[in-house]
């Protein structure tokens, strides 16, 4: 067995103990000396809305459920060894109910769950015994209302990060997971800052700069789809593109957050998503979530926790 296959088997057995051979159940870990790390999850609801999270989407002539990254994480905390290592303390979102742009992007969902209306995951979803909806905390990045060249914008961003730090400190956060947060953090993640290398991101693309599959930024999935069709977009405003050799694979990266765009040190990545040039953007997103992104998140968290298992 190759080293790569052995590593994948390790994480399959770690995260899905039912995959062990019959008669060799996972032995419970001795957690007496290991306190759970406090996990805080931060996302932008407007990004999940663009993914159609929590909805049935059109898929190759049928329908498939678009599971959100948060729902996948909750399932892993409930059903795998990750729940022995982490406790989910809060789910923070930065969307601004007073922003016309945010209201437009969240028109299908709203800013909080309302019975009978669409939401990003089943409203009864629980994590480690608690309702996920009870963990939600709105922390609007209000500075985004200001024009890009407004002198009030940098000060507003600093104030937002200060509020975020105060909240994380109050929660005693050990690790912060970003998922589709449409804000670039600055003060919190600078070298020497209190949350430097304590904030990680799960990204729907390979972020290693030296990889032929590298897809950073907000358009990573669309970039991969264009790449499979033999095009490279050089201007996302005009959609100007140039011809390139087709690349028909993509994946996901779990990486530390720095001051750049998906440029932090990679902790773990998974390249396991084949691209059909006939895919729609949502079909490719569904495939990449299920084949690469969810595994990258779960396996990356397991690596950070240093969880060990003995293969029987």
UniProtKB/TrEMBL annotation:
<dbReference type="GO" id="GO:0006189">
    <property type="term" value="P:'de novo' IMP biosynthetic process"/>
</dbReference>
<comment type="pathway">
    <text>Purine metabolism; IMP biosynthesis via de novo pathway; N(2)-formyl-N(1)-(5-phospho-D-ribosyl)glycinamide from N(1)-(5-phospho-D-ribosyl)glycinamide (10-formyl THF route): step 1/1.</text>
</comment>
<keyword id="KW-0658">Purine biosynthesis</keyword>
<dbReference type="GO" id="GO:0004644">
    <property type="term" value="F:phosphoribosylglycinamide formyltransferase activity"/>
</dbReference>
<dbReference type="InterPro" id="IPR036477">
    <property type="entry name" value="Formyl_transf_N_sf"/>
</dbReference>
<dbReference type="GO" id="GO:0005829">
    <property type="term" value="C:cytosol"/>
</dbReference>
<protein>
    <recommendedName>
        <fullName>phosphoribosylglycinamide formyltransferase 1</fullName>
        <ecNumber>2.1.2.2</ecNumber>
    </recommendedName>
</protein>
<keyword id="KW-0808">Transferase</keyword>
